[in-house]
Design a protein that fits this description.
Helix content: over 70%
Largest sheet: none
Distance between the termini: 66 Å
Radius of gyration: 26 Å
Strand content: under 5%
Length: 668
């Protein structure tokens, strides 16, 4: 090993950093995590103090982790100088607010020249950190938002206003007003998205990092294999279940793919799934992890903040739609296994449930504490803090029992050198968890910072109301057309933005129209936009989770992405069902809720069967054609249409089952 390939804390984390740089990255990352733990569980800080310190440390870490010319290039003197300048800009961004906050509040609206200069530096620093950590797409959108604020007869760039369509015109704003909005106000960089990132999101990302460091991922995967491995297509079903478990605590569909997919995709291929199918199944299942409570890829926290609905209520109403999604992917997997005549794995190839639980039961305790504290209505940030403390306590207790009582009985006596080595190893694991949590949070926090710029400009210029008017005009007041427009917009935005940023931008622009103009309940509107924001993970041509699955499966990216797109169809249909049957989200008469839920599950099953042309046996062309209007009937907001659709689907299902008993395809 050389000094340039090994991180002092996390091995092999950055290939082109010197040892001194790796130590500095570890120091800043650990400092950030310790600051977050302190503010979450020991001494809560004021709004601007928390957010400004968090963003400063996040940007410092970003400039250390990502060199100016990209990860494939060494810094050199020029690159190092640029990085040092931006590093200083990151420190200035947070430090200026912390040291001058009272004075800034006193002159609110009458900013000094220093305020404006520091605000300009902070905005440029945020955009550059975003370019490195999130990608060029997010940065370009942030720049366009700022240029839009300057465009207009009273703005810094009045000539830009002549290029704006009439509905998008506005008065324009000077640099003092824009910087005041973006840096010195509560609706810009330090607005709600950054507030959520600096509190709830980070602490749960850190919780997920500790689960990863301590081996929780392998526990969930082994448990899924033990439960489903002997069934037809067992590894694929295990991928669905493991992705639901890992995704519920993970903040990234791509991270979910590479962690669970490393185990599940090779086994799926060995069982008979095509490489494209194996990669697509894992990508679709991993994307579902981002809509699976309790975290929903940080979405639950954002939805709760925007709607002012308690976090626990958001989680509760999201459980059933998430189960519907995973049920659809699971059914696709099962149908393919039946079509191709696959069998399950042998008992000898699978872990035993008892052995898995014996080795990893302690991973369930922090999750149980997390759920219990949420039910007790404790702040999510403090819940995350106690979940982390519980995990560390359980890990120490479990090791102590083994070291002092079990080990000696197995010929491993307690000695001072072994005890010292154990303490040293445990301390390194602790530091690894702290560093990994901070590293994993960089991209999300930077996306939220730039999203704050966009939200600030939208609020300043009234762009949200203009978008609402445009939606009404283009859709002609038709709700279905409006939803299709949102879906297309989410796909385009998702090509350049991470899911969290895509959701924030979309909900600010189209949320008011859905809720106010089309009468969609507020929580349903947010869930629809959040679900549609996930589609860039699985929809060609930019299907990031699909590409990750293809890399592991050794398959071509585009065919794998099309498979992922097919398996993830619930991502498009379930939000439609929420809109036209809102009682499954906002509640209603119990019989109506049960009816809506069962008919939705039946329709999703029929959709999977019609798409694959198989259920119990091969479906005839007539059966597949008949199922389509029946599925539409279930989604149509009419009880008569729903009942007719359910009746037709049941008739086709029964006919197909009888045909399978006779060993021939159904004719109806």
């Amino acid at each position: 090993m050389t000094d340039t390939t090994v991180s002092p804390i996390i091995p092999g984390s950055q290939a082109n950093h010197s040892r001194a740089m790796l130590w500095l990255i570890s120091l800043v990352a650990i400092t950030l995590s310790l600051f977050q733990l302190y503010s979450a569980g020991i001494q809560p800080l004021g709004l601007f103090y928390q957010r400004s310190i968090h963003l400063a440390l996040i940007m410092m870490l970003a400039f250390l982790m990502f060199p100016v010319f990209g990860p494939g290039h060494k810094r050199g003197l020029g690159g190092g100088t640029i990085d040092l300048i931006f590093f200083a800009g990151a420190m200035l961004t947070g430090g200026y607010l912390v040291l001058n906050l009272d004075a800034i509040f006193q002159r609110a609206g009458f900013w000094s020249q220093t305020d404006i200069v520091v605000g300009c530096i902070a905005t440029l620093t945020v955009l550059e950190a975003s370019r490195r950590a999130v990608g060029l797409g997010m940065t370009i959108i942030g720049i366009i938002a700022i240029l839009y604020a300057f465009a207009g007869p009273r703005g810094e760039l009045p000539w830009l206003g002549q290029f704006l369509p009439g509905i998008l015109e506005h008065r324009g704003y000077n640099i003092d007003r824009v910087v005041g909005q973006l840096y010195l106000g509560q609706e810009g960089i330090f607005g709600l998205p950054m507030g959520v990132a600096a509190t709830y999101i980070f602490i749960f990302v850190l919780f997920g990092a500790f689960l990863e460091i301590t081996g929780a991922g392998k526990f969930f995967i082994d448990l899924a294999y033990a439960a489903t491995g002997r069934q037809r297509g067992g590894p694929a079903k295990a991928a669905v279940i493991a992705s639901a478990g890992m995704g519920s605590i993970s903040g990234s569909a791509i991270a979910n793919v590479v962690t669970t997919g490393a185990f599940t995709i090779p086994l799926m291929k060995r069982l008979g799934y095509k490489p494209e199918q194996a990669g697509g199944i894992e990508a679709a299942a991993s994307t579902g992890g981002q809509i699976m409570p309790p975290l929903m890829g940080a979405g639950a926290f954002l939805i709760a903040e925007y709607t002012r609905i308690p976090y626990l209520d958001v989680v509760k109403v999201s459980i059933f739609p998430a189960i519907m999604y995973f049920g659809t992917v699971y059914l696709f997997v099962h149908i393919i296994a039946l079509k191709q005549g696959m069998q399950g794995m042998t008992r000898d190839e699978l872990p035993k449930v008892g052995d898995v639980m014996a080795s990893g039961w302690h991973f369930l305790l922090p999750l149980a504490v997390l759920v219990w504290l949420l039910v007790m209505s404790m702040s999510p940030m403090r819940v995350g803090y106690y979940a982390i403390i519980t995990m560390l306590a359980v890990a120490v207790l479990r090791f102590s029992v083994w070291f002092f009582f079990v080990g000696p009985k197995r010929g491993e006596p307690v000695t001072a050198p072994r005890l010292w080595q154990a303490i040293r190893t445990g301390f390194i694991k602790l530091l690894q968890g702290l560093e990994l949590g901070a590293r994993n949070a960089v991209s999300v926090s930077m996306a939220c910072a730039v999203a704050g710029i966009i939200v600030g400009v939208v609020g300043l210029t009234g762009l949200g109301l203009k978008f609402s008017a445009m939606m009404m005009a283009f859709s002609g007041g038709n709700l279905l057309l409006a939803l299709v427009m949102i879906l297309l917009a989410s796909l385009v935005l998702g090509m350049g933005l991470p899911v969290t940023a895509s959701y924030i931008v979309l909900i600010v622009l189209v949320g008011p129209a859905l809720a106010n103009e089309f009468g969609v309940p507020l929580l349903v509107a947010h869930l629809v936009v959040f679900w549609y924001s996930q589609d860039s993970n699985v929809t060609p041509p930019i299907a990031l989770a699909g590409f990750a699955g293809a890399a592991i499966a050794g398959a071509k990216p585009m065919p794998t992405s099309f498979q992922a797109w097919k398996f993830a169809k619930g991502l498009y249909l379930i939000p439609l069902f929420m809109v036209y049957n809102p009682e499954i989200i906002v509640g209603g008469p119990i019989l109506l809720v049960i009816w809506s839920g069962l008919s939705a599950l039946l329709a999703l099953g029929a959709f999977a069967a019609a798409l694959e042309g198989f259920l119990f046996t091969r479906l005839s062309t007539i059966s597949r054609v008949v199922l389509l209007p029946a599925i539409i009937g279930v989604f149509y907001p009419s009880l008569v249409a729903e009942m007719a659709g359910v009746a037709v689907m049941l008739l086709v299902f029964v006919g197909n089952w009888l045909a399978s008993r006779r060993g021939q395809p159904a004719v109806v």
